[in-house]
Amino acid sequence: MSSQWIFSNGKFVTKQEAVISVYDHGFLYGDGVFEGIRVYDGNIFKLTEHLKRLYESAQSIMLEIPYSKEDFQQIIVDTVRKNQLESGYIRVVVSRGPGNLGLDPSRCSAPHVIVIAEELALFPKELYELGLTVASVASRRNRPDVLSPQIKSLNYLNNILVKLEANQAGAHEALMLNDQGYVTEGSADNIFIVKNNTIITPPVYLGALEGITRNAIIDLAKECGYEMKETPFTRHDVYVADEVFLTGTAAEVIAVVEVDKRMISDGKPGKVTNHLLSEFRKVVTTDGIQCYPSSKNRAEV
Ligand code: PMP
Description:
Acts on leucine, isoleucine and valine. With 301 residues, the chain is of the alpha+beta class.
């Protein structure tokens, strides 16, 4: 990518010019919402679903996004085109905007909207071949009645704290339980287990973000003929699973081979995980919104 253009409150600016107010409540209090989206070969994967989640998060925190969904979709497409990006990562942020030092959001003048589209530093290939290590952590997932994990808000301290715990345990990722001890999700990805060829993921009401990749994998698993269940489970079920894997926009589908120092099966990515990853990689270039009319005239758009 030659120079990077960032959409910031209605115009494209350079990285250096893309600044926000120190009074922005997104910065001061984590008051805002966001999305992380992938573009694969010009196709913005599941953009409609990401926009739906963004608007639902905003609705929940009474943040009015100053664009219609159609206009916002066009802004995201335009940001990808402006950067001539074929494959990469898109970050969309809508913050409450500049206010005063008090908490009151009604003092904020207008939301600040940014869209960043850039090349993604991909997870190292060997992590997909070897699988991840995971540690369950002492910090519990936010209770849905306190700060719902379904709101993709800028307040990610719960997730950051568990990531710190995972780092301290020497694991790649954290496993978060809810206040009743049921498994919810990782710091930034959903969890699945496979037992006797049945694929199981926790229901989101236990305290998980309703991941777009999670939902895509549920659909693919059913299409591939697997039995698929959304049922609560505990750490024990994870330890004795045949396979464990995580899903997320950045991670896609990635095997977990060790949880709390227990090796999962033979300690290698399992066949169901590998199968779903390959099926997933087939749909990512078609299921979404195409930014370019065809691959050969991309540069002219
Ligand atoms: N859980 C959390 C807490 C996340 O931040 C993410 C990443 N957005 C996910 C799960 C996975 O969601 P998605 O598949 O939509 O990226």
